[in-house]
Amino acid sequence: MIDMKRRSVLAGAAALTTASLAGPVRAQPAKPARIVVNASGGAQAAGLRKAFFEEFEKRFGIRVVDSSPPDLGKLKAMVTTGNVEWAITELAIEEAYRAEAEGLLEPIDHKIVDFSRFPANLRDRKHIFTRSVYSTVMGYRTDSWAAGKGPQSWADFWDVRKFPGPRTLQNKPLDNLEFALLADGVPLDRLYPLDVDRAFRKLDQIKRHVTVWWATGAQSAQLLIDKECVLGSAWNGRYFAAIGQGAPIHVEWNQAGIKESAFVIPKGTKDAYWAQQMFQVMTDARLQAVYANLATYPGLNLDSPQYVDPKVASHLPTHPDNINRQFWQDVQWWMANARSVEDRWAKWLIG
Amino acid sequence: MSAATRFTPGWAALGIAPLCVLLLFFVAPVFRFLLFSIADGTLAPFEKALTDGLHMLVFLRTLEIAAIVTVICLALGYPFAYWLATTTPGWRAVGFAFVLLPFWISVLVRTYAWMILLGRNGILNRNLVALGIVDAPLPLLHNTTGVVIGMVHVLLPYMIFPLYAVMRRMDPALLGAARGLGAPGWEVFRRVYLPLTLPGILSGATLVFVVSLGFFITPALLGGGRVLMIGVLIERQVRQFLDWGLAAALAVIVLAVALGIYAALRRLLKADLQWS
After folding, report:
1. Residues of A in contact with B243 (CB under 8 A)
2. Tens of pLDDT along B168-202?
3. What ipTM score was computed for the predicted complex, to two decimals?
4. Please, are residues B159 and B204 in contact by the beta-carbon 8 Å criterion?
5. Domain, as residue range, for A175
6. Structural domains in chain A (count)
């Protein structure tokens, strides 16, 4: 607690007179009128504004403009033409690694961004800031099966006799290959490297029962709301929002796929210094809790959970009851295999 | 300015500015992007596009869907354009409003509207089942049927406007003359009206077909994932895998086919005009 206090005092002071306190003297660059943060948009944009952008605007007097959606291709175009309009952009984690490999990212300034209260494996990241995590979870309509009495594993999801009804899964091999292997009996901690042939053989069994392969996050929840499907997968925040609006959906956390949501600074942005300051705002334990309360996508500051609304806590991927029943996406495996697997996925789907 | 008195060069000059803008901000960047396909000095991206078994399969399906959409647009658009061209000014205004209204609504919204109408629990299926017309909901969505319905809705105006333009310009006296010479209704249509509206048919069909090739959101949302069009694969290479060489090679192939179809239709049209 003492440590916490000292650090927050420091952070406050640093915000006022960054140049004088932050180690080696470094002149604070001139303030732009605005910086652009590019992320997923929609409800998430509102959450980012309330949790982080308002605080940033208050601390530095620089307006934050949000844009969307995350777009690796656009990032590359901006960086290679030297016309970078984003100070920060969100990317899917494997895309962030790809951008890092292609040299499209500005390094994180660890003098400004303090990761000391983050999990050890994230503290030394050079270019990629894990702003939050999210899970691909199973959900079903509670008028098909009472909450808790529906499918409780991917093996159940595959069991169309015991749990009949149209299903929906994402139109991507990511997660689905893992789900198929789990359904086929592979243990949670032995998934990687994925046995792709075995996964596709298992997917063959469920293919005609999946009436919709969803393309957007909004669609995944809407399909259950409209009763187009009774059982499916979605990002946990999508179901949470739908349930908040009264949709009869139950979320099953068992065997869900948890992964990082990455924020990065495009190489060559003139606002790099302010992007680093924004990252520092985003590491704040209390502000991460504000965001988690709205979107159910928690940040990874180890001090953050104590500030989360107890009513929301059990809906977070990182809640103790949830996290150990999930598998972490192996980004390295997906980096190495995504292209060939995605081509095979497309061929499999239309075949 | 003395140019004001010389009418023609002044108008030509007016056209130069937009042409320059188009060249600079549209044609040049597109051309620059297409060059990515040969950026490494080989034709490897084309080889992959043509031989990997996925991209050409999807391209053939794309051509097939575009053809179906074009035929349906023509079947629906032709009588509607005829009605627009021949009805009273009051009804014409109403008709145009119906054609134009969807243009003011985002494609995404229209696509979601189809989901509500055509879904398993959609308005149409609920009523069909309630009325006892069908026993189980019809599979109208999340398949090729859904994609074609959604695309026809978006593209129908592109068919109607060129048809309307030629139908309005047509001299009704020609039809009267044909009838006066003893031709029955069907013959008047087949030998006079249809040939005279052929330019409209060809330009409408070209527009619809070519725009269809690039369709993106509609197949992704109404196809349920099973209907894959070439635009989706190109986007994936651009945005997800940063393989701009392959993306550009695919774009070159689509562009070449589109230009080929356009050229073929132009020749057809010219031959037909000379012949008649």
Report:
1. 339
2. 998 888 888 888 888 888 888 888 899 999 999 99
3. 0.83
4. yes
5. 134-258+336-350
6. 2
